[in-house]
Amino acid sequence: MDWTKLSFAVQKTDSLIISRFTDGEWSEPEVSKDFTFHMDVYAGVFHYSNSCFEGLKAFRGADGKIRIFRPDENAARLARSGAFLGMPYPSPELFIKMCRMCVEANIDYLPPYGYNASMYLRPVLIGTNPQLNVTSSKEAVFAVLGNPVGSYSGIKGLTSVTATIARNYDRAAPNGTGSYKLGANYAPSFHAYNLAHSQGFTELLFLDPATKTNIDEFGTSNFLAIKGNTYVTPLSDSVLPSITNKSLRQIAADMGMKVEQRVVPAAELSEFDEVNACGTAVVITPIYSITDKPALESESATKVYEFGRPGEVGAVSKKLYDHLRGIQDGIEQDVHDWCMIL
What we know:
By secondary structure, the chain is an alpha+beta fold. It has helices spanning 44-48, 71-85, 92-105, 190-198, 243-254, 315-328; strands at 16-22, 25-26, 30-32, 51-53, 56-60, 66-69, 118-127, 140-149, 161-166, 203-207, 215-218, 222-227, 230-234, 258-262, 274-279, 283-292, 303-306, 339-341.
């Protein structure tokens, strides 16, 4: 495999790990080479989107050790999503065991150190029992897939991109499911994303669905900004609790920065020195400019906010990124014990 050409596209490995919940208990996880699920056409996932998922990464470090980054946090977040859907979900022990099994079964697909690449793990939980009534699934399949990946956008290194605001589209409803990692949360954003991409923007920023005055998050990941020596990120019930964002906040505090997780008015964009999207797939994607328009379809802009120079990443953001990646690669000391070493 040419490790230099990895993107975030599907690259099937040898095996996946699978467990089934039937008769009130999870089966012993198995290594399977069958990448197709066999289930009834009436399975709840096909009709009512009874599904949730996670994303985490395994890294081959500079010291030769293999690390999975904060799997306990992903296990807890999947449990929260599964509980919200009222369906069975794996214990933290089962979740982590299956993630380990997936890396070990596909070890030849774990990129070597030095390529800024990793193995992305995609745990997925789906409802499988046949149903017509609108209710939670009682039976489920939990599977962990592995995929060698490079950068999410395909751009090598930290290169800033453009974004626009989705003023006439919502990512989530007030008091809705925005803070849960459900499959059903993503499809509604596709139309708006397609519009933004057709206009040349890489990212799409969503505002709070109730007032359209405060920043929620980007469609793919959380919003973070640097304002002097302060790390700013939105506090909202509609925002997915990003493990990457949580980690970066801790790193910022360790570096002596002030960390503010609060309501962030969209008007405050003019006061930020650096803006980024952050999440597992990207860690940090620097945002060079954010275009605000009356509607996403509008040709004219109300205002364009700029942060630094095109293609560049801010100094503080770069420092945060390097430190987090250093922990994942075994270069920086893991003082908070975030990495599980295989």
